[in-house]
Amino acid sequence: MTFGSISRHIPVYLLLATACGIGTADTAPLVVAHRAAPSHWPENSRSAVRESLERGYPAIEIDIVLTSDGVPVIAHDPWLEPDRCTLSDGKPFGERILVAEISSERLLDYKCGGIPDPEFPDAQVLAEPLLQLDELIEAVRDYPETWIQLDVKYEPGLTPPPEVFAEEILGRWTTSGLENPWYVSANLPELLVAFRDWMDGDPITTILIYPRFPPDSDSTRVALGTELLGSLGIRDALGTAKRAEADGIAWPFEIIDWHAARAARDSGLQVMVWTVNEEKDLDRFCRWPIDALITDFPERAPCLPR
Amino acid sequence: MPAALIALAILGGALEREPDATFAFDRIDLISEDPGTWLNYDVHYFSVFPTSTTVRWVSQVKAVWRTPYRGLHIGASLRSQSMVLEVPLATTEKHGFYLTGGAQTRLLLPTGLLGGLAWRYGPVRIGTGISAVSTASWSHRSWTHWQVLPTLGLGIGRHHAPSTQ
Fold it and tell me: What is the ipTM of this complex?
């Protein structure tokens, strides 16, 4: 073979040499009903939790904030949104109400989920008071095999400090006698550290959500900043998770760093992906090497146990 | 990291300064051989994640300069900065076929090694080989996890006769 013939075929050899990628997962990922499946019911609502459990989803993710008297309630944002919640009589209220500034008793004056969510036009519209963690614990007690992801919404300046979250949530959860497998997730490492410290050596699984999208932030800007800092190696998921001594990383599926994800798995960290809703994407991720797949539409995931 | 330092030392011993040579722009690598993660991990998912795949493509586009030392090139992209030695294997007036080897860094933190073959034809350079890359970064200064990736590079730059390089 002459140099000339080699050079003519070089592009073919090169394409063959690089024809690789992430392999097929050996086991299907755990399908997690994000916010207890808002595609069917109002997100994080008592109806959503109850129905998700009855449908037998393998895992449900719920978000937790604290009231001014330290009662953990299930809600995604540190505040009540006027476009999602109303007064208990159905009348609207004007501006956001910070949950950390009202007591659990006063919180009963409000209901959420009674306003259609344009993101989920097929979901039921049900106005209900926010679910308390104590009620959630009782609800899941009859479903001991269901995984529970406690996503703690600690936001500096808007919520109590991490230690208060740890005390109020873990104090209830660990004394409940629940058999359910569970893990804690948060987007700030200090929250995970506080939870692990509170457990004082007892087992707890902590997942770092990376990157952090602060409330009301421009998600495109955050994503681009994450890419830039990650490219330069100044700040990345692996380093942040290792410093937090987290057990896993949850990436938004649009910007997951597969090189880092593979290294994370190789080093024993769990890899989760959120929030995958399109059927074609769910089909792909069900076959990819990840540990959990978080979705608003669990039924669309081919790897959901039927 | 020690492996990268050893490689740099080996490269250093093989260097020969060319008389009157200066730093000069060599090419832009549209697809860079280092670190090789874009081609191995991201490009497959262009249809799923077009934006992030494109952003990551931009971050791996690398500008490469020739140095006054024979065959030694330095390159820089957002994702990786590298020092690569190209040793001619067979060259004609039009073609050049080279053995390549070097070290890669992230903001000058050693992160891996690469080696392979490159073919130059006028302004076009195509390279292939292996990239041994760790996940080390300034955020995560650990060299415990390595991946060996096949690489493919495509560069376009100055038109020059390979035999004079």
Answer: 0.84
